[in-house]
Write a structure and sequence with these properties.
This protein has 9 helices and 17 strands. Strands 1, 2, 8, 9, 10, 11 and 17 form a 7-stranded mixed beta sheet that branches. A 7-stranded mixed beta sheet has the order 6-5-13-14-15-12-16, sandwiched between helices. A 3-stranded antiparallel beta sheet has the order 3-7-4. It is α/β, with parallel strands linked by helices and 381 residues long. The protein has 4 domains: 5-48 and 93-154 and 256-300, 3-Layer(bba) Sandwich (FAD/NAD(P)-binding domain); 49-70 and 83-91, no CATH class; 160-254, D-Amino Acid Oxidase, Chain A, domain 2; 312-380. It is globular and about 60 Å long. A hairpin with a 2-residue loop joins strand 14 and strand 15. Helix 1 (15-26) runs parallel beside helix 2 and helix 1 (15-26) packs across helix 4 (285-300).
Length: 381
Amino acid sequence: MNHSHFDYVIVGNGLAGLQLALKLASDSYFDGVKIALIDPLSKTKNDKTWSFWEKHSTPWDNLTEKEWPQASFITKSKEISLNLHPYRYKTIRSIDFYKFSRSVLSQKSNVMFITDTVTSIQETIDLVQITTKSETYTSAHVFDSRVPDSFNNLENKSIRLTQHFKGYVIDVSSNVFNDNNLVMMDYRLKDGGQTTFMYVLPFSKRKALIEFTYFTEQLVEESVYDTFIKTYIKDYLKIDKYHITETETGQIPMSTFRFEKFNTSKITKIGTGGGWVKASTGYSFKHTEKKVTQIINNIKLNRIPSFKLFKSKYKFYDKVFLKVLKDENSKGEWVFQQLYSKNSIQSIFRFLDEESTLIDELKIMWSLLSWRFLKAFFKTL
């Protein structure tokens, strides 16, 4: 293989980069196409979990750590039980996905992993030049997962919240968890008036991920998460003794920033850097899978890879939702309580998957009808 020129260069071996590489490598249409994946890390640690819901079997079933048929939504005033059928909520550990992806791709003679840091990407008339700390490469097309510099520019006028969190995976000595039921959101323990909640994934009756999450503009010190998680375990789960086997932290942008404007005929932004994370929720696994499929179809039809990656009406819905959370962050609990108490979980899942019917959308909008949403709606228009 020519080690300086590739047909496709994928910058970033995260969820989007690896899903794209796997899709390219599994399709005979791309046999012989030279692909490079460039990332500064070798991805040998579990750094996150990805969760999603699905009605059918998926290519990732062998990687699924756990799946749940039921869920709960909890506030101080009520607990809503959610029968997810025909959906099941599933979780995949990132390390399992990384190992699987590398084992599959390393067997492909046309795929090359490069451990390095990309410092610049320059588009010319004929190709794209990718400069790393140690080498220079060229490619016919680059899929770039890096977040654009202008996203962090103080002059950026887009709505910007961050979903930030810390979680403990704990083991206990007795059967304390209902491992058929996850806690989607528990608002009983909150940080002041902000939109914060606890998320609980019981992997077994004695093991669970306990995670404290914010949907806010400002970040907090790591010790703040620790305090809330420990309080929740002691006072709400009534667990005095436990062993922390893993921790995870994360920051996911929830923004109306127009990531798609950085796509060109030779450069496609992907993953978080491409705006593939659902702006209103932070979910990304299934959205990534859909966008990768769309990219593959576009290439086969001789379209630019980024053609129709986004649906404008859902971007509008996300923008209204984020406007409410930005202007009245204390109303997050009310918003989600309305959403979960007045709509079926199946219609919510369809809406978040951007597969909803007009009836689904009208019911969801009606359930959230309030002065704050009307203001956000007209401001967004």
